[in-house]
Specification:
With about 170 residues, this protein is mostly helical. It contains 6 helices and 2 strands; from the N terminus they run ββαααααα. Helix content is about 55%, strand content about 5%. A two-stranded antiparallel sheet has the order 1-2.
């Protein structure tokens, strides 16, 4: 659209007195939804690579078609996620938000809704300025970035260990 707005067909909200009541998408922040869903996909990519790197066998992870929640469940009890880096618990919440969005596009990703991600970021980061987590977009970006960096470091460690002839796995 020329004005940058989205024009999607309305949803049937309900029937009232024999008339269809339609619900439009006015006020829906499609930009933040897009950022959130893209971040979720990127985190899932790193999660896939992490599982493949630390798998003791060359399992066909893609063929298994595991859900995001199942992947998080696989890593939930690993020693690689000690306090304050309890990534699986926060990923469960992150995924629950994605599930809410998939059933209700008008679900609002507010700072309050993202509180577990904010608390995680505050625990793991000592960076100046991180206290400015006052916008959903910043929270989503910071959370996805930190999770991906943590997983990337573990994936890289595994690859280096394998390259050097070691088993390449942390004790799980």
């Amino acid at each position: 659209m020329e004005d940058g707005s989205f024009r999607l067909p309305p949803l049937l909200e309900r029937f009232e007195n024999g008339q269809a009541i339609w619900k439009g998408f006015e006020g829906v922040d499609f930009e933040i939804i897009g950022l959130f869903l893209s971040s979720h996909l990127i985190v899932e990519h790193y999660l896939d690579e992490y599982l493949a790197a630390y798998s003791p066998a060359p399992f066909s992870w893609e063929a298994a078609k595991l859900t995001f929640g199942q992947k998080v469940a696989l890593i939930s009890n690993l020693k690689q996620f000690p306090e304050p880096w309890v990534i699986p618990a926060t990923l469960k919440h992150f995924n629950s938000l994605r599930n809410k969005l998939s059933h209700d596009v008008s679900f609002v990703l507010s700072v309050e809704v993202l509180l577990p991600e904010v608390q995680f970021l505050q625990k793991v980061s000592s960076r100046e300025g991180l206290g400015d987590l006052d916008a959903p977009a910043k929270i989503i970006q910071e959370f996805a970035s930190l999770v991906c960096v943590y997983l990337a470091s573990a994936i890289t460690y595994c690859a280096e260990q394998k390259h050097n002839g070691q088993n390449g796995r942390w004790k799980l």
